[in-house]
Design brief:
This protein is of the alpha/beta class. It has twelve helices and twelve strands. The chain has helices at residues 14-26, 66-76, 90-95, 97-117, 154-173, 195-204, 224-237, 254-265, 290-293, 303-316, 318-325, 329-337, and strands at residues 4-9, 30-35, 56-59, 80-83, 122-128, 177-182, 184-186, 209-212, 218-223, 243-246, 251-253, 272-275.
Length: 340
């Protein structure tokens, strides 16, 4: 296998962090550079076991810093860029949309310019199914790669904007790119503000679990390990300029997700507290992954298997998430959900 330099942006985050570990293990001949600004959701402790690996390198930089990013590309001459770095929490985007615009749009532009200037062989942009907007509750409707872009939140709008920039750099400048749009991820090291880890941690502490509205909103759930194998496949075999949707065929209402976790943990559903619905809350997301399946990818995890594995991981790594919740995040959480 040929040697390559791979820049992974946002590699201290949830999905990017899992991808860094996956690539380190699978491709010992690749040098994996983890670039992360280390915002509130960035956590390097997850990489403690790979710190001494010969092919792992951490770079603490801000993707919106043009000079710093250009210097990095000039020094390292990357072959591939896999771009995860993004503000990703919808609730936070409602409170602070300007942060999302700067990181998700301007940061992507800086990386695209550097990739063009230094002749990167492939720029892979990791996006979200939320750029398509929402589906109704008809179980026969799905997002495909040709579905119109109709985002409804500041977060999804910022991601849609960055998607269009990536497309433009392919069409205008011929930069080899791929865009992947995934459904909701879950698994190890998921930051505790998101639905599944939030429910697990609060259930274990016998605290109220906020559920928006009546909990009827539907999401398609994808285990992060399956997402990593799909990204790897597209990175190496994806057709330049193409978009690939990555979904898990695991549609659940938010309430069903919470109820499943409570059942596995042996906790009462009386912990559930229905709260005012999120502004602009999309009804349903569901992906048709036929295109990426044609490359030979299939998810390994169904939701029933994956959620038990995920719950077990949080039980075995309680110190990790408790340290996060004991910090400044707790105050942010109360603000987000209007809790006393």
């Amino acid at each position: 296998m040929n040697k390559a330099k791979v820049l992974v942006t946002g590699g201290a985050g949830f999905i990017g962090g899992n991808f860094v570990q996956y690539m380190i293990k699978k491709y010992p001949n690749y040098d994996i550079y983890n670039l992360d600004k280390l915002t509130y959701a960035g956590d390097l402790s997850k990489h403690s076991e790979i710190l001494e690996e010969h092919n792992y390198f951490f770079v603490n930089k801000d993707i919106t810093d043009t000079e710093s990013i250009n210097n990095l590309f000039d020094n390292e001459k990357f072959d591939y860029v896999v771009h995860f770095a993004a503000e990703s929490h919808v609730d936070r985007s409602i409170l602070e949309p300007d942060v999302f615009i700067k990181t998700n749009i301007l940061g992507t532009h800086v990386l695209l310019e550097a990739s063009k200037k230094y002749n990167v062989k492939k720029f892979m942009h990791i996006s979200t199914d939320e750029v398509y907007g929402e589906l109704d509750f008809d179980p026969n409707t799905f997002f495909t790669e040709t579905s119109p872009i109709m985002p409804n939140s500041p977060y999804s709008s910022s991601k849609a904007s960055s998607d269009l920039l990536v497309r433009a750099y392919y069409e205008t400048f011929g930069l080899p790119v791929n865009i992947t749009r995934c459904s909701n991820n879950y698994g190890p090291y998921h930051f505790p503000e998101k639905l599944i880890p939030q429910t697990i941690s609060k259930a274990l502490k016998n605290e109220r679990i906020p559920v928006y509205g009546k909990g009827e909103n539907i999401r398609d759930w994808l285990h992060v390990s399956d997402h990593c194998t799909a990204i790897d496949l597209v990175l190496h075999k994806g057709e330049d300029g193409s978009v690939y949707n990555i979904g898990g065929h695991n549609e659940k209402t938010n309430l069903e997700v919470v109820q499943t976790i409570l059942k596995v943990l042996g906790k009462s559903e009386e912990l559930i507290e229905f709260v005012s619905d999120r502004l602009g809350h999309d009804k349903r997301y569901a992906i048709d992954p036929t295109k990426i399946e044609s490359l030979g990818w299939k998810p390994v995890y169904d939701f029933d298997t994956g959620i038990i594995q995920t719950i077990q991981w949080y039980l075995e790594n309680e110190e990790w998430w408790r340290q996060i919740l004991n910090g400044e995040y707790q105050e942010n959480f109360k603000q987000l959900y209007n809790l006393e």
